[in-house]
Amino acid sequence: MTAGALSRVKVLDLSRVLAGPWAAQTLGDLGAEVVKVERPGTGDDTRAWGPPFVHDREGRPTGESAYYMCTNRNKRSVAIDFTRPEGQALVQALACESDVLIENFKTGGLQAYGLDYASLSALNPRLVYCSVTGFGHTGPYAQRAGYDFLIQGMGGLMSITGRPDGTPGGGPIKVGVALTDILTGLYASTAILAALQAREHTGRGQHIDLALLDVQVACLANQGMNHLYGGPAPRRMGNAHPNTVPYQDFPTADGHMILAIGNDGQFARFCQVAGRPEWAADGRFAHNAARLENRELLIPLLCELTARRSTREWIALLEPHAVPCGPINTVADVFDDAQVRARGMQIAMAHPQAGSVPLVASPIRLSDTPVQYRSAPPQLGQHTRQVLQERLGLSEETCESLHRKGVLA
Question: Could you tell me the mean pLDDT of each successive run of 10 residues in the chain, 409 residues long?
């Protein structure tokens, strides 16, 4: 296996649930050595977020949920109780020989244990310390707990997601995955890489203050800009697009399909292939601005037309003419899709109890330093003694003594 792009980077992951672990897994996939510090006995909260759970060869649950498995590969787990002085000393020692620390405790929550940025940067000035919280370390909400669902609501995402008010099924809807957490994890990994690059020039680490609310506001993207530039207040439009038409789902003879037409040329080709060339020449529909203005007239015409063929027939008809379209797949359909399979987006990794576990691959493709899949998500405390002996030089006797005291699992 070739060395990963981040093979010389050591990451100490004190985070749990999704945003922080997602960032740490991304760095691990890129070759970083990631040590995950967990509470003895319970570990990361998501270990218990099931069913479904990983089962061993005899069909018994192992204690790792499918949720936990999605965001913790390429890590080693050490179980340390850092509410006790001996545990604090161990984590401080690990931080002293790490490049990056990721944590998502409540603002100020690690200060009592000497594991906050000020304390650890005094011991290791080169440490890049990434804090992930709901609302950041400043501002009137800094002490509040923040969760993805809450932030999707507060950050405006749910005001533009779902069917319009007053229609069947209308009202605010959250996205089907914890998207704000995932986006925060991706921003965190980007910020960490930027801080590591800056350290090459300054010799100093720095503190990264990432807030879920900030990320969600930033990711309003065109909808946020539509508001700031004086457009109508963004609203829930179901699957329709506020800036281009037609760009939504349409009924077919056996279900639904998506048309994602992004320019006038694509619309003209659709009209030609669909047997309605006159629509592309109609002043009400010829240009996107006109289609936006006449959305309520055009969409019913399209729905009546698309309902005459099956989804498969429409895709076969439109794809050769470069008209963006596609099915609405179930998750099972996704992993059976020819393109998804060709890109290797489902992998399997060895697991000490299950034998082998399925995982979703990283989407990153690097030609010289490809993503590495070195180890499946670890069992709680699986590497405690190995890491402490290897990194800190602790003896087996010392580890055993700390275990008897309850400091180590």
Answer: 89 97 98 97 95 93 93 98 97 98 96 97 98 97 95 96 91 95 98 98 98 98 93 89 95 97 97 97 96 97 97 97 96 96 97 94 96 95 97 96 94
**Tally of CB atoms within 10 A around 201:** 7
Beta bridge pairs of residue 293: none
Cβ–Cβ under 8 Å, residues 244 and 223 = no
Distances (CA, A) of 104 to 2, 44, 101, 137, 177: 32, 12, 10, 11, 19
**DSSP class per residue in 139-157:** STTTTS---HHHHHHHTTG
Angstrom CA distances, 195 to 6, 100, 178, 199, 402, stand at 14, 9, 26, 6, 35
Rounded CA gap, 44 and 48, in Å?
8
Label the pairing between strands 61-65 and 75-79: unpaired
Tokens of residue 60, six digits: 């018994």
Looking at residue 197, its amino acid is Q
Residues taking part in catalysis: 181
DSSP H/E element including 317: helix 311-318
56 close to 354: Cβ distance less than 8 angstroms:
yes
Which residues 6+ apart lie within 8 Å of 257 measured at CB? 249, 250, 306, 311, 314, 315, 325, 326, 327, 328
Q: Which domains, and CATH codes, for the chain?
A: 10-218+362-405 (3.40.50.10540), 247-329 (3.30.1540.10)
